[in-house]
Specification:
- By secondary structure, the protein is of the alpha/beta class.
- The chain is built from 18 helices and 18 strands.
- Strand 3, helix 4 and strand 4 form a beta-alpha-beta unit.
- The longest helix is centred in the last third of the chain and has 16 residues, at about 450-465.
- The protein binds cobalamin and iron/sulfur cluster.
- The site of cobalamin (B12) has 36 residues, from helix 1, helix 2, strand 3, strand 4 and helix 5.
Length: about 475
């Protein structure tokens, strides 16, 4: 017997945001929807970024009261967390409400306090747990579940991580719309975007990173899906641009090569974006095939140009290795984006300001740079706590020091940005994204005419941030 007739899988994020958060579907929530699909009467997936009428909690509540008997909400980001809490707490309290996601797992107690209508919180990866909830397994027997009972909250033991070879992949037919590259409400490219996960976890142990940990601090050992199942999923993807959101697409180069071969063999023509480590440069055959298969953008974690800091972060690479790798990578028609961290322990201003120079020396097309952050289960937390003069104000927040507080790091950030993104670089980026096909000439012309709108959006966002 089916326990729930109609479940709503809700992505509660909307409002002005930076480009990247608008561009991709809510992958985790889609995994949840796919896992419960055959066990409930019907699943509706609502992504509020694209559902203007339902951004009004009254309108959404009316829909929920009329149609829904199970509400499943995904809370993933630190950013906009309070807005999301406000929104969720206004939804009908009489409907069974389950919340999950990375941020929800970190904030279980707070969420139960903040949103009296939340009945249950699923901690960590939720595919197996949601199946138990919808099939009526008693709450006390569901590992990984926190739930209300007798005016208090019960936290069951953690759930073992699900076997990714058995998890159904997201059912894209549940979506009501396509995803685009949007900045401040302005569509920048006519291409549609999607994500796909071929592995979970990462075998490396960089000190600052919690990518391969779920927010319970459970290390996700590296696990692969079969290449055949990845191709099967890819065939259901209609988007022009696909981000493989694996922590590192090239962890197992032999498998990456097989995937490239299968993409070519099956004539799957898309622009692929991957997260990678510089190690991939040691495998020119894989790179040749990746380029041929349509891999056009590499997002590469470099973190620092300085050996001392790379060692401190346990990144497992050196400056010379980065230089050698980029001498190879820049031979390919691939857009290279680098991630850096600044404000590391013991890092001087001069060292931080070397980031833009180094990034230009190795010929990165673009960079993003973030302050060092501390998360609840990050191994770096202890190091920061033990280093005199260094501190953080909250979990998930940035690390500061007596020498480099918020103001000093902001000035350094602005200098890194302006020294890297000068006019020749902007012209180079514009040409390159066009050359690799990420945007078309028409997109660029259209973006030019939308510049006033973009500037208005940017100004509005700055105003909102100051408030
Ligand atoms: C791929 C990825 C991206 C992709 C986008 C992916 C997407 N589809 O949106 C890109 C590269 C664009 C990206 C960007 C960013 N990311 Co990111 N990203 C990831 C990464 C590596 C994988 C996410 C993923 O697909 N996981 C797989 C899915 C299946 O897992 P999941 O989403 O957690 O969902 C599971 C559970 O949480 C749960 N669940 C989720 N929702 C629900 C709902 C219900 C009802 C239930 C029951 C369960 C449930 O079940 C799901 C299935 O197992 C994670 C790290 C990680 N390994 O998780 C970081 C991560 C999510 N990103 C993070 C961050 C900080 C960012 C950025 C802010 C970085 C930045 N400063 O630019 C940006 C965000 C955009 C922006 N700039 O504002 C943080 C979030 C931390 C936080 N609390 O805010 C993470 C956790 C990494 C980290 N530890 O720092 N990211
Ligand atoms: S930074 Fe990259 S390589 Fe290092 S542990 Fe995280 S995902 Fe793995």
């Amino acid at each position: 017997m089916i326990k729930y007739k109609h479940a709503l899988a809700l992505n509660p994020y909307f409002g002005d945001s930076n480009t990247i958060r608008w561009t991709f579907p809510p992958t985790g929530l889609e995994y949840i929807a796919a896992s419960m699909k055959d066990l409930v009467g019907k699943v509706t997936l609502l992504d509020l970024r694209y559902e203007k009428p339902y951004q009004d909690p009254k309108a959404l509540s009316k829909f929920i009261r009329n149609e829904i008997d199970l509400l499943c909400v995904s809370i993933r980001w630190e950013s906009r967390f309070e807005n999301v809490c406000d929104f969720v707490s206004q939804l009908p309290s009489e409907i069974c409400t389950v919340v999950g996601g990375y941020k929800a797992t970190e904030e279980v107690e707070y969420l139960f306090d903040r949103c009296p209508n939340i009945d249950m919180i699923v901690r960590g990866e939720g595919e197996e747990i949601i199946k138990q909830i919808v099939t009526g397994v008693p709450y006390k027997d569901i590992r990984g579940l926190s739930y209300r009972e007798n005016g208090g909250v019960v936290h069951n033991k953690i759930h073992p991580l699900p076997d990714i070879t058995r998890i159904p992949f997201p059912d894209r037919s549940l979506r009501k719309h396509d995803y685009y590259l949007v900045k401040h409400g302005v569509r920048l490219s006519s291409h549609t975007f999607d994500t796909l996960l071929t592995t979970r976890g990462c075998p490396f142990k960089c000190k600052f990173c919690t990518f391969s940990l779920n927010p319970l601090g459970q290390k996700r050992s590296y696990a692969e899906r079969s290449v055949e199942s990845v191709i099967e999923e890819l065939k259901t993807v209609t988007a022009d641009v696909v981000l493989f959101s694996d922590d590192n697409f090239f962890t197992n180069p032999k498998r990456s090569e097989q995937l490239c071969d299968l993409i070519i063999e099956n004539k799957i023509k898309k622009i692929f974006v991957v997260q990678a480590r510089i190690d991939v440069a040691k495998h020119p055959r894989v790179l040749d095939k990746a380029e041929k298969a349509g891999f056009k953008v590499f997002l590469i974690g470099i973190e620092s140009p300085h050996d001392r800091i790379l060692k401190q972060l346990d990144k497992g690479i050196t400056q010379q290795q980065v230089r050698d790798a980029f001498a190879v990578l820049t031979q390919y028609n691939i857009y290279l984006h680098g991630y850096f961290i600044y404000g590391n322990i013991g890092e001087t201003k001069e060292e931080m300001l070397y980031i833009p120079k180094f990034a230009k020396e190795i010929k990165l097309d673009s960079i993003t740079f973030q302050k060092l952050r501390v998360e609840r289960f990050s191994p770096l937390k202890e190091v920061v706590e033990e280093t005199p003069g260094y501190y953080y104000n909250r979990i998930g927040g940035s690390v500061y020091s007596d020498h480099y507080g918020r103001k000093e790091l902001k000035q350094i950030r602005n200098r890194i940005r302006s020294e890297f993104y000068d006019l020749p670089k902007i012209i180079h980026i514009t040409r390159k994204v066009r050359r690799i096909g990420l945007v078309s000439g028409r997109d660029l012309t259209s973006a030019f005419f939308k510049l006033p709108l973009l500037m208005y959006g940017l100004a509005r966002r700055k105003r909102e941030r100051r408030r």
